[in-house]
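Case 271 in the screening queue. Each case pairs one protein sequence with one candidate compound; here the compound is 1-O-phosphono-alpha-D-glucopyranose. For every case the pipeline is the same: read the inputs, emit a complex structure as tokens, and attach any notable structural observations.

Predict complex for case 271.
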Amino acid sequence: MKTIRKAVLPVAGFGTRILPATKSIPKEMLPVVDRPALQYVVDEATEAGIEHIVFVTGRNKGAIEDYFDRAYELEASLHLKQKTELLAELESKLPLPGSASFVRQQAPLGLGHAIWCAREVIGDEPFAVLLPDVLIQAEPGCLKQMVNCYTKTGGNVIAVDAVPGDQTDKYGIITPKSQNGNIYEMSAMVEKPAPADAPSNLKITGRYILQPEIFKFLEQQKPGAGNEIQLTDAMAALMETSPFFALQYEGQDYDLQNRIFRSRLRLCHDP
Ligand code: G1P
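Case 271 output:
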């Protein structure tokens, strides 16, 4: 079984749900406590053994590339002021040379299209996808739990969690076929079904381990929900020929855009 060495992080989205905060700052760079949201997702990937991250970026996302590069003037200034702890912290967050790639998605055609844009860098090996909009608090991290599952099951693994019945139209939803502990086998999955049409209340949480065959399906995938090329539709097709599992992970996910939106609202309304 091939190990999961590479991960794709799609970071091309505009973040329209939290405008104007994201007008000039990529949503992935918004701070959560003391670091950019994206750092948590990169740390989750690293903990799971990922050695190479492919960022699928778009225009106006240069801050992300700069964040993962050296900042000579800043470092020189910190050095002069003998801020050695800060310098060491910056150094610890730098990816190893050559371990991060940046690929442009030239048009916002959907998540499936974004992942397809990474195909040349991923090549012919299984890989992970982490959606940086979704922060997951878990011990061990969600992707690590999935890698542990994958070492037993092989195939493709997605993370799932229960969602309130009236919110299925915000997520990909799976049709479970059988359950073994916290691992489901599935017969189908559908993107953003209306509550009345949802096959279950198990949502796809934004973490994936996929076989490279997914790229063939993504290449031919027609636009689906929201008129976008959907990863969920390509996975549903891949499921016909490649083993697919859903892991009910242990932990809590937070939608970056909703959380910030809510706390902003709270701040606005608090006296
Ligand atoms: C994407 C996926 C969806 C998944 C969700 C998790 O949707 O397409 O299947 O459930 O992320 O947050 P998006 O939020 O990009 O519309």
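Case 271 observations:
- The chain has one domain: 6-269.
- Residues 6-269 form a domain with the Spore Coat Polysaccharide Biosynthesis Protein SpsA; Chain A fold (CATH 3.90.550.10).
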